[in-house]
Design goal:
eight-stranded parallel β-barrel; five-stranded mixed beta sheet; globular; 36% helix; alpha/beta
C-alpha cells in the first residue's frame, strides 16, 4: 500500500492493519481494494494517485470551509467551540446564543479566546478562533446561533456530564437479579411465546424473592412478514417494540369468547418444544386486525386520545415505520432485494410519492401504529409494576449493535449507514473466517453531520422505562468491523469515540439510566479504561474470568471487577449442564463450526481439563451446598454433580461485582443453548428454546428455591 493511500485511510479512520484478540496477536493487513472501497463509501475518491492527493487536500480543508461544526459535543466542565471565518471578519462576532432543548431557556454565552489559527485557501485567508464558554450550562442539548455581520450560523451544542448516571443503590449495595430471554418464558396463559404480561408477572416473582434487576434480550421489532427470522439482534427498527410480545387477551378490545375458536391451537403452541413463530405471530396479527376494527368503530374517547397522544409523541419515526411496513408487506413476496429494489419513488421516505402512498393506505398504516401503541401500553404496564414493587434497577435492556440492512431504520435514513456494507466480526480463534452479521453500520461522518440524532434516538428509545442499558459490542463506540457486501472480509472503521461516549453519558443522565458495555472480543488498548472513567459498567462471565485467557484456572470470585454486571454465561454460551457434558461441542461439530473429528476430540480433552479446573475452584471457595457436597471426581461423562448449579451460582454471586445475574437455564439444568453464533436456523434452532418450567410454578420449584437461597446467602 502506497504512503498516500495509507495516509488518506488513516485520516478517514479506515484501519489498514490490525491485530486480532488471540494470544499470538496475529496481524492482518487490509488490501488496497477494501481500503479504496471504504474511502469511496465515506465520500472520497481514491481511484488514482491524483484523486488521492485531491481527497487529502479536501479532507485537510473541510473544517476551514464551514463557519461552525454541525455539532459540538463537550463536557460540562470544559465547554469549548471553534469558529471559522474570513480573517477580515473574525473580530466582528456579535454574539452567540444557546437555546436549551430541555426547557427552551435562552443563554447569551460569555466566551473568551483560547487561541487562533490561520489558513490560506484559494484567494481567501481564514481564521479559526477557539472559544471557551464560561456561562454555566446544564447537561443536555442546545441550539447554537452565531451572528456575524448580520448573518446567522447555526449548530448544536451537546453538554455532557463527566460520567454516566450513577444509581445510588449500586453505590451502596450489591444487587442480584435475572438474565431473561423474554420469549423463552413458559406460562399456562401465554400463546407459546413469552409476552409482556409474563414480564409483568415475572417482575412480581423477582420482587418477591428479593431480586432487583431483570436483564432482557432486545425487545425491538423484527421482520413482520418473516417471523421465523427471530434473532432479537437483527431488528427492523431499534426504536420500536416487537408485537409478538403483545398479550392478545390483555388488549382492551378483546372480548369474552374471542379466543374460544383457537384454544386447541394455543394448547399446541404451549406444548411444542420450540417456539412456532411462523404460526403464533400471524395468529396474533389476525386478532390485532380484528381489534383494530373494533378500536376504530368504538370511538372510546380516552382510548383514542391515548392513541393520538402516542402517535404525536413518537411522531415522524412511528409514521415512517408504519409506512415502511405497509410498503414492505405489499412487495416482500414479489420484489427481491429489499427496499432498494422497490420502485424508485418509494426508496426515499421524503419523496412525495411516499406521502401519497401513505394517504391512500392510511388504514394499514394506522394498523401498524396501533400495534406499537398496544405493545408500548403493555410494556409500560410491566415497567409500572417495577416501580410499584420497588426494584432498585428494574429492567436492564439490551441495545443491539446494529440493525438489518433491509430495515425501516435504513430506509428512513439511508445516508447515515455505510452503503453496500455491513457490520461483522474479524477472524478469531472461534471463527477463523470471521462473522458476517449483515447489520447496517453508521457512517461516522454523516452521523456527526446529523448531530448524532440517529444515535440519540436509539439510546433514548431503549432507555425508556429502563434502569440500566447494556450496549451490545460497546467497542462500536470507538470502532466497528465492517465488511463489504461483496467481500468475505473487511476492516475496522473508526468513530468519534469521545463524542460517542459523551452522547451516551448525556442520555444516561437525562433518562436516569445506568450503562453497561459488552466488550468481549477484540478490545482496543485503553478502551476499558475509557469506559471505566465514564462510569460505564463492564460485563463479566465466569468462563472469561480465568488466569490465562480462556484456558487457565478459574479466578476466585474476590478478583472479579467491582463495577460490573456479572453472570455465569450469556445467551450465546452453553448452559452449565450442557457445558459439563460437552453437548455444545457435539452441536458445533454438527453445525460445521468445528471442522473435523480431530479438533472435536481435542475440544473434549480441553473440556475435561476445564471440568477439573472448575471443581478445583469450587472446592477452594467452600461454596458447595452443605447437603449436596461433592461426592466424587465425576470422571468425564459419569454424572452431573447434584449441587453444581447452586455451587456455581453462589461462587459467582459472592464476587464484589455490583450486579449478579443468574440464568434460569442453569438453575433448571437446561441441556440446550439459546443461540449458536455463526449459524442460521437451518443448523440450529436459535432463539426458539423455552424454559422447561411454567412461570406459575417458579415460586414452588425446588431447584429455583435452592439456587436463590444459595445466591442470597452470599449477596
Amino acid at each position: 500500500m502506497n504512503g498516500k493511500l495509507k495516509n488518506l485511510a488513516d485520516k478517514l479512520g479506515i484501519l489498514t492493519e490490525y491485530y486480532d484478540a488471540g494470544q499470538n496477536r496475529k496481524k492482518y493487513e487490509i488490501s488496497d481494494e477494501v481500503v479504496k472501497f471504504f474511502i469511496e463509501k465515506l465520500g472520497y475518491d481514491a481511484s488514482t494517485d491524483e484523486a488521492i492527493e485531491k481527497s487529502l487536500a479536501r479532507f485537510e480543508n473541510r473544517r476551514w470551509q464551514e463557519t461552525l461544526e454541525p455539532v459540538y459535543v463537550v463536557e460540562q466542565n470544559n465547554v469549548c467551540i471553534d469558529v471559522v471565518l474570513p480573517e477580515n471578519e473574525i473580530d466582528t462576532l456579535a454574539g452567540i446564543t444557546a437555546v436549551s432543548r430541555q426547557n427552551q431557556k435562552t443563554y447569551h454565552l460569555e466566551t473568551s479566546v483560547a487561541g487562533t489559527e490561520q489558513k490560506h485557501i484559494g484567494h481567501t485567508s481564514f481564521a479559526r478562533r477557539f472559544l471557551t464558554v464560561s456561562t454555566p450550562l446544564e447537561i443536555g442539548y442546545y441550539d447554537l446561533t452565531l451572528v456575524v455581520a448580520g448573518r446567522s450560523y447555526h449548530s448544536v451544542l451537546a453538554v455532557a456530564p463527566e460520567k454516566c448516571y450513577t444509581n445510588e443503590a449500586l453505590e451502596n449495595s450489591r444487587l442480584w437479579g435475572y438474565a431473561l430471554q423474554l420469549y423463552s418464558l413458559k406460562s399456562r396463559r401465554n400463546w407459546g411465546v413469552g409476552d409482556f404480561t409474563d414480564l409483568k408477572n415475572f417482575v412480581d416473582f423477582c420482587a418477591s424473592e428479593g431480586g432487583d434487576v431483570i436483564g432482557l434480550n432486545p425487545l425491538n421489532i423484527l421482520e413482520h412478514n418473516f417471523p421465523e427470522n427471530a434473532s432479537p439482534y437483527f431488528s427492523v427498527s431499534r426504536l420500536f417494540l416487537n408485537p409478538v410480545y403483545i398479550d392478545i387477551e390483555n388488549v382492551p378490545e378483546c372480548r369474552p369468547g374471542d379466543i374460544d375458536e383457537v384454544r386447541d391451537r394455543l394448547s399446541e403452541f404451549r406444548n411444542a418444544e420450540l417456539i412456532q413463530y411462523e404460526q403464533i405471530y400471524p395468529l396474533k396479527i389476525k386478532f390485532m386486525e380484528r381489534f383494530y376494527e373494533r378500536f376504530k368503530a368504538d370511538k372510546n374517547t380516552s382510548r383514542h386520545k391515548e392513541f393520538d397522544d402516542f402517535c404525536a409523541r413518537e411522531g415522524a419515526e412511528l409514521n415512517k415505520l408504519a409506512v415502511f411496513l405497509t410498503l414492505y408487506e405489499e412487495r416482500c413476496h414479489t420484489v427481491w432485494g429489499g427496499w432498494r429494489a422497490w420502485e424508485e419513488q418509494y426508496r426515499n421516505p421524503s419523496n412525495p410519492a411516499v406521502k401519497a402512498y401513505a394517504e391512500s393506505h392510511a388504514d394499514r398504516v394506522g394498523f401498524y401504529k396501533f400495534l406499537q401503541f398496544e405493545a408500548f401500553r403493555q410494556f409500560d404496564a410491566a415497567a409500572e409494576e417495577v416501580s410499584r414493587r420497588g426494584l432498585k434497577i428494574g429492567f436492564y435492556r439490551d441495545l443491539a449493535v446494529g440493525v438489518g440492512q433491509d430495515s425501516a431504520e435504513s430506509w428512513s435514513d439511508p445516508d447515515v449507514f455505510i452503503a453496500d456494507a455491513g457490520a461483522g466480526a474479524p477472524p478469531d480463534a472461534f471463527f477463523p473466517g470471521g462473522q458476517k452479521w449483515g447489520l447496517g453500520a453508521f457512517n461516522p461522518f454523516v452521523l456527526k453531520a446529523k448531530a448524532y440524532e440517529p444515535l440519540i434516538k436509539i439510546l433514548r428509545a431503549n432507555m425508556r422505562s429502563t434502569g440500566a442499558l447494556r450496549i451490545d459490542h460497546v467497542m462500536s463506540l470507538m470502532r466497528l468491523y465492517v465488511i463489504p457486501n461483496s467481500k468475505p472480509l473487511g476492516t475496522y472503521i473508526m468513530y468519534n469515540f469521545a463524542d460517542m461516549l459523551n452522547i451516551v453519558a448525556i442520555e444516561s443522565h437525562l433518562n436516569r439510566c445506568v450503562v453497561a458495555g459488552e466488550s468481549m472480543g477484540n478490545v482496543p488498548d485503553g478502551f476499558l479504561d475509557a469506559l471505566e472513567k465514564k462510569n460505564i459498567y463492564s460485563l463479566s462471565v465466569l468462563w472469561a474470568e480465568r488466569a490465562v485467557g480462556w484456558g487457565g484456572d478459574f479466578n476466585q470470585p474476590e478478583t472479579y471487577p467491582v463495577k460490573a454486571f456479572t453472570s455465569v454465561g450469556t445467551h450465546d454460551m452453553a448452559p452449565l449442564r450442557m457445558w459439563w457434558f460437552g453437548y455444545d461441542i457435539a452441536d458445533m461439530r454438527q453445525a460445521g463450526i468445528i471442522p473435523n473429528d480431530e479438533v472435536m476430540k481435542n475440544n473434549y480433552h480441553e473440556r475435561e481439563q476445564d471440568r477439573w479446573k472448575l471443581l478445583k475452584a469450587l472446592d477452594a471457595s467452600g461454596l458447595w451446598p452443605q447437603d449436596r457436597c461433592r461426592q466424587s471426581n465425576y470422571i468425564y461423562g459419569e454424572s452431573y454433580p447434584e449441587g453444581m448449579a447452586e455451587a456455581v451460582n453462589a461462587f459467582v454471586a459472592s464476587c464484589p461485582s455490583k450486579v449478579f445475574l443468574t440464568e434460569l437455564e442453569n438453575i433448571l439444568e437446561v441441556e440446550k443453548r439459546q443461540n449458536l453464533p455463526g449459524v442460521d436456523r437451518d443448523k440450529h434452532p436459535n432463539w426458539r428454546r423455552k424454559l422447561p418450567v411454567d412461570l406459575e410454578d417458579f415460586s414452588d420449584n425446588e431447584m429455583i428455591k435452592r439456587n436463590l437461597a444459595a445466591i442470597k446467602r452470599v449477596r
